[in-house]
Amino acid sequence: MSEEILVVENLSKTIKRKEIVKELSFSLRAGEVFGFLGPNGAGKTTTIRMLVGLIKPTSGSIKICGYNLATHFKEALNCLGCIVENPELYPYLSGMENLQHFARMLDHVTKERILEVVEMVGLENRVHDLVKTYSLGMRQRLGIAQALLGNPKLLILDEPTNGLDPAGIREMREFIRQLAKTNGLSVLVSSHLLSEVQLLCDRVGIISKGELLHVASVEQLLSEQERLIWRVRPAHLALQILQGYTEIKGESSDGLIITPYEEEKVSLWNRVLIEGGVEILEMHRRLPTLEDMFMEWTGGQSID
Known about the structure:
Rossmann fold
């Protein structure tokens, strides 16, 4: 198993006697992209602020590269790069001048490291231009370059595609994947774009009302929720028969019945329906999107 770069155990935060985050536990492995999703008021932003040391948890622990954030704060933060909300940049300085300025705040950042992160984010041709001339996507890249100056093992990005057009979103997605793959970075991505998280992330954590509902690979989450759609006649008879064999996930007035997809049982269900006098007009498998599951798990709440 890959090395665990971030380990969160029983993390809680209470503000004014209200429990905002409730005993969250999850981890990130080396080279992994982890999606962190939650509806409005779920506690997602509060969790991120605890992870980057902006606020202290009420209880629980955060370990980054084995360092406990509470007891070895500096060592833990030396392993961390982050962009919370928008990258803070000076528009009337060049990209290079911005990086040099931030490098002076860190220990042992060499000129060679600055040039290395510029190359990593693909800004070699524009790094000496003023930041005010940059597109939003370029500013995001420069912000990530800033976060990478200290050569972190963990990168936390809060809404990295926010405000980008479709082409910029696709480019950022490919860029983050490449960062994780070629540099062994663990990347935690907070995002409201479920379709992008589905394409970008290896695993996903779903948080609602301060509690972590699910943590699993995107592939595993989707496969667990695979459905079988039946179009049958008469529907009421088919429903009565199927209820004796499996859970009914949905039904409609036009003869559609939705059940879990269980490959080894489909032929049995098909046979008992026919023997029971049901006409099967159509049946097909449907793999839900992450958005389908998110809405189901969070009771239809909107995303941040």
